[in-house]
User: What shape does this take?
Amino acid sequence: MRDHAVAALDAVSRADAGDSNGRHALPTDFERLAERAVSRRGFLRGTAAGGATAFVLGAGGMAAMPVRAAVAGLDFTPVAANGLDTVTVPEGYSWHVVARWGDPLWSDGAPFDHATRGTGASQELAFGDNCDGMALYTDGGHSVLAVNNEYTNLGIAFANRESGKPETDDDVRKSKATHGVSVVEIAPADGAWQIVPDSPYNRRITPDTPMEITGPARGHELLKTAADPDGTTALGTWNNCGNGRTPWGTYLACEENFNGYFSSSDPDFALPEGYKRYGIKAEDRGYRWAMTDERFDVSRHPNEPHRAGYIVEIDPLDPASVPKKRTALGRFKHENAEVTLAADGRAVVYLGDDERGEFLYRFVSDGAYSEGGDNADLLASGTLSVARFADDGSGEWVALTPATTGMASQAEICIHTRQAASAVGATTMDRPEWVAANPARAEAYCCLTNNKNRGVKPNAGGDATPVGGPNPRAKNNYGQIVRWRPMGGDHASASFAWDLYVVAGNPTVHANAYAGSANLNAGNMFNSPDGLAFDSQGRLWIQTDGKYSNEGDFAGQGNNMMLVGDPATGEIRRFLVGPRECEVTGITWSGDRTTLFVGIQHPGEKGNSHFPEGGDAAPRSSVIAIARDDGGEIG
Ligand code: FEO
Ligand code: CA
Ligand code: CA
Assistant: This one.
């Protein structure tokens, strides 16, 4: 097993030396990594226990971590874990709030009302709730931020209702308007980035915004509804989690837990077979959208759930543009969409499906990207594949086609993608969250956030979840980050070599596999990696969405956080700690790289935060800006 892994990594390194696209000119690092992976195999602290297999490890084996060495050129003193109700950043850095849930984007919008927490009308003119993935675009001198508004915490948004849930038609209108995407121009004024009210760029995209359905599933029987008998036009997007940005300047919003908004008014309605794998059920889960919008009543419109769960492409600089649902990139619980280019210029999009035991996907476009050319429909057609990882450190991408899956058509594969991937024996993963591609060399990383069912029970499709490969621990409640390097240095290659960049854990509680990899220590430990992005200098930023109890298995880990890692050495340092009960998610930079924008999602989701305003204020998901006090670049 060890020899196979070495052979796979060496083959990648050799191929990289002759990399044809010239973008990955630093091949020797990976050769060193390969050697380290071998020399440190069996690296587990103590002995393997708890159902763990030997880890296929990457750069984690730094026995003595320097206290103040820079992470690939970013020198800062790491932040200690804490449970404060504020944002903590390193000495020499400052932060401020840019946009909060309920902030009006237009001057005729009402300021946020802490007592009522807004109305349908005020929310439709305001920044959405629970900010997640985001990207900043520049247009001339303008900075335009596109931000996903993933969902809303009912108990916070409807704290004015005794039930803590939407009760009236207007409550549902408000709930829908908390969702979608906020596009907002921001500008520095009085030393802080602020919303530019009434900017012509400002736009709210909601669950009611008309969208075009593109790709293989366009017009398929399963997508036809009473309101759209052609199956070509859908209304809206919701539960947009991570994001993507394309080299041609568009924004990708990724529909994740789309299922939770549907319900059935007919208790006897027989749910279609295809619903089960996606968790579409008859019972309302509290949103009550079907109460005012019959699209969400599956007994009346059973094809509506087939029209969600896609990647949505948006032109953030054209408020009149019609967003496009890209069925070619599959239908599942999309996390983010990391776009890079193959050696021949085709667009490559890595895609995670965030559910226990679901899969990691890759899309490769049919056409090639042309700088300055027409790339508008590059994501309309291509090859969708799913990852199969072998325990020996090698892996392959298996194309999902009628021939490989036995399914009737590409359209059906793009609608029932999970079932297609199960049919080819894809590797069940520990909840793939964000993927990030290294701009300095052909490799990509994916957060596998956690999976309490690993080694315990199969996924929703009945696929086994054996302990091993990139999912090395049973009942995995800490998570890990897997990375892979495509054969030949080409992201369109059919095969890859993989290892684990970091295995999260708690070395102060455990002395076995649950302590984590050797690049994790008492000073930088974390659980549940989720958001992930490279900066322009090749540093890896890691955001967490994990347990913040600060006790038991999570003792000493404090609130959710953001860390920065060095891909070459494996060093990881904690850069930021978020406020209480938040998730840190979403990351982007100003055009001049002196400001880092970060999302603080759902502070106080269990009732114990007043971030950011303090006092008795309602907790509000916020985008914050972080800068160096000396004005230098931050990524
Ligand atoms: Fe919305 Fe998988 O996080
Ligand atoms: Ca996430
Ligand atoms: Ca998560």
